Amino acid sequence: MSRIIAGVEIPGTPGAEAAERLVKSQSSPLLFDHSLRVFLFGSLRARGHGLEPDPELLYLAALFHDSGLLAPPSRTPHRFEVDGADLAREFLLASGYSAAAAETVWQAIALHTTTEIPGRMGGVIAATNLGVLTDAVGLGVDELDPEVAGEILRSYPRDDFKSGFLATFHEGLKHRPDTTYGTINADVLEHFDPDFRRGSMVDRVMSAWETV
Known about the structure:
This protein has helices at residues 14-26, 29-48, 55-64, 80-94, 99-110, 123-137, 146-155, 161-173, 185-192, 201-206; strands at residues 3-5, 8-10. Strand 1 (3-5) and strand 2 (8-10) form a beta hairpin. The chain contains ten helices and two strands; from the N terminus they run ββαααααααααα. The chain has one domain: Orthogonal Bundle (Hypothetical protein af1432), CATH 1.10.3210. Helix 5 (99-110) runs parallel beside helix 6. The radius of gyration is 18 Å and the shape is globular.
């Protein structure tokens, strides 16, 4: 059954409801509520940018976008965004979604922390990034009607979100520090771990092999 919050209809298809149950069972309340806010904020900001993302695919991308933080470590360590994207694609394909739909959701999740690029891609990818930026760092909040934003926050509160979100990030990244190279994720490890030293492209070039 669909719900309408702040004028945005949360998809109530069998696939969307199955994804919601799965993510909710495996996630923390903090991350689950964050994911719902990402969908709602992403939907509203997409309207403001003249985008028309597929609501169901945007919902699936929002639900799974941080699932890689909670996933068991990959055999070959990946960025958490890639782990989450892989989990989402596996779910979509197993649930009968098309390969094209699964690829769109994969790209939206894999790129959701990347700057500039998502906005040049399709509506689902751009809107996922917009929703993440709004809820995580407040970017674009001024574009929203305060009453509408308030309705979202009453439905899915941000109680102690900042410290809890960063702590969850740290837990999901501390066992794979090398995967944070060149990403904002290194900021989190640098904040929590005084011994962490972020990788440098300059260091890599300077220590590279010499041609014969």
